[in-house]
Design brief:
Two copies of one chain form a homodimer. Chain A is an alpha+beta fold and about 325 residues long. The first copy, chain A, is built from ten helices and 14 strands. Chain A has a seven-stranded mixed beta sheet, sandwiched between helices. Chain A has a four-stranded mixed beta sheet with strand order 3-6-4-5. In chain A, helix 2 packs parallel to helix 3, helix 2 packs parallel to helix 6 and helix 4 packs across helix 5. The longest helix of chain A has 18 residues. Chain A is globular, with a radius of gyration of 20 Å. About 5% of the residues of chain A have low confidence. Strand 3 of chain A pairs antiparallel with strand 2 of chain B.
Chain lengths: ~325, ~325
């Protein structure tokens, strides 16, 4: 297919009518009707690059379309916002043929349906490695940032920790066939942005992040931005027996997976009040940085331990 | 520098207060105040990839930051909109050191200043080749799409044609030092999105595009979307004596440069009324496709001739 035919195929797969979208795929830019005044727009971009975030033989092209979309959608969830619509910029090496491109688009479409935000445009380019950049707009009555956590708050978690990192490690070490690691591999391949949980926390959260680079690092952003100290309860991070079993199969520590593993797209919220669907994993105190508390005592947390597990993409908005 | 320090550097360079921007670099997403009801939001993404759109030795890193930003901003101009703010996703190979990254960001900042739309966030990732994805939001009272050109309209041009393609060819063929090609090389390295011209045409245009992939191909999008035939006047495309001189130095045709060369980011508008700052280059008729008219007669236009000159990135919104 030439590029015109490829774009027509993408338009067929991705085009769906959507509220507030007046012009979608097929012009110089998408045209949107602004949300009601009083609302806020939140806006993020994420990019997944072959060789850094994935190898093409670790997942189907459908998975790669899905997971790259979800990585961006998770940032919208972390703001307490509702996804609205998306653009996607693909860099395609020659080995990505028409059938592979179709699968990437189908993965994006399915993820877009799951979170309720259609792809309304994008860009195609050639390049040496597959990369998928996704930018999403969302709307909310009030955006939850990283600033605003207060001493006395509780840290609440929605979703799982450590599983995607275990799956990544299983793929890297050729252990993806081990029965104890099947769920982990699936978690890495098909994460889901926690949109409903994000909306649930928006009214009461003082601060929130999604766990894309690892719990210690991402909640460390809350500590930095809010000028507070965050304390995790070790027992709350290692209560998942199946994760402990997966860690044994990998010869690593479940606690390290939970603290430093990224790409599960769990949400962590700092708030006084409990939130439905979230469980307590720690608290916020006066001070700076992070700590881990166990029956043996407390130790300061090394937020850079993430390098062992996480991907190399870093948000700056 | 580690990634945290790199992001802090980018924030220092790029952060400027901007209307309607409540949270910029440093959170999971940027937070924006919606434009007034009745306005429209336009939204585009463009990506420039090393090896496909540029070679690192063809321009400074400052140029690469500038031109990638302008490529995206031009899509906002083509909708008749005013740029609002931008996100940037960078894929950095190891050879892009801190000094090079700083120069890319300075180029983005200077382009952002030129068009009045600050970078309010983004993403950093590692990868095998440098790529710069830029997504821009703009606002307007009424968006000018590719649909809406009418038989009887005139085709109007703002900006130059063929120069960036001449510059690209000079760089590819090692002729960048020739005096007749200096302006062409500069045109390729530092294009400028025609924001004021875009605003000027918005009230009267029936349809508009920017020339990123070549005049024949891009105005062909208007012909397709509006179900009309477009006719270019050859004399209007070859009236630039300096382009003719550059074409001679390259051993190619000035007409081909004007028809098939991209990346000048000229604007072409279909409207009944003349527009200040635009000049006539052709007309719109009943029919389909495109044609070229000269004193010798008329011939149908091959919109795919662009492959000889243009880059490989293709908009789909």
């Amino acid at each position: 297919m030439d590029e015109r035919a490829r774009i027509a195929m993408l338009a067929r797969i991705l085009s769906v009518p959507a509220a507030g979208v007046e012009t979608a795929i097929g012009d110089d830019a998408a045209v949107l009707e602004p949300p009601h005044e009083g609302h806020r727009i939140v806006w993020t971009i994420d990019e997944q690059v072959e060789g850094s975030h994935f190898r093409a033989d670790w997942a189907t092209f459908h998975d790669l379309g899905w997971r790259s979309f979800m990585a961006a959608a998770s940032d919208i969830a972390a703001m307490g916002a509702t996804p609205w619509c998306a653009l996607s910029a693909l860099v395609l090496p020659d080995v990505v043929d028409d059938a592979a491109l179709e699968q990437i688009a189908l993965g994006q479409r399915d993820a877009a349906r799951e979170v309720g935000a259609p792809v309304v445009g994008g860009n195609l380019a050639r390049g040496p490695a597959l990369s998928i950049a996704t930018t999403l707009l969302g709307t909310c009555a009030r955006a939850v940032t990283r600033r605003g956590a207060r001493p006395g708050d509780t840290l609440w978690l929605a979703g799982r920790l450590g599983w995607a990192a275990a799956g990544l490690r299983a793929l890297q070490e050729g252990k993806a066939q081990k029965p104890q690691l099947q769920f982990a591999v699936a978690a890495w391949r098909r994460p889901t942005a926690l949109i409903a949980a994000g909306r649930a926390m928006a009214a009461v959260a003082h601060a929130a992040v999604d766990v894309s680079d690892g719990l210690a690092r991402d909640v460390g952003h809350i500590a930095d931005a809010s000028s507070v100290n965050v304390v995790f309860e070790e027992a709350a991070l290692t209560s998942d027996d199946a994760l402990v079993e997966a860690a044994v199969a990998l010869g690593c520590s479940a606690l390290d997976l939970a603290l430093y593993g990224g790409e599960d797209y769990a949400l962590v919220v700092s708030s006084e009040a409990p939130i439905e669907g979230f469980r307590r994993i720690g608290e916020v105190r006066e001070g700076r940085g992070g700590a881990l508390r166990s029956p043996r005592g407390e130790r300061p947390l090394d937020a850079v331990g993430f390098d062992h597990f996480a991907a190399t993409s870093t948000k700056r908005a």
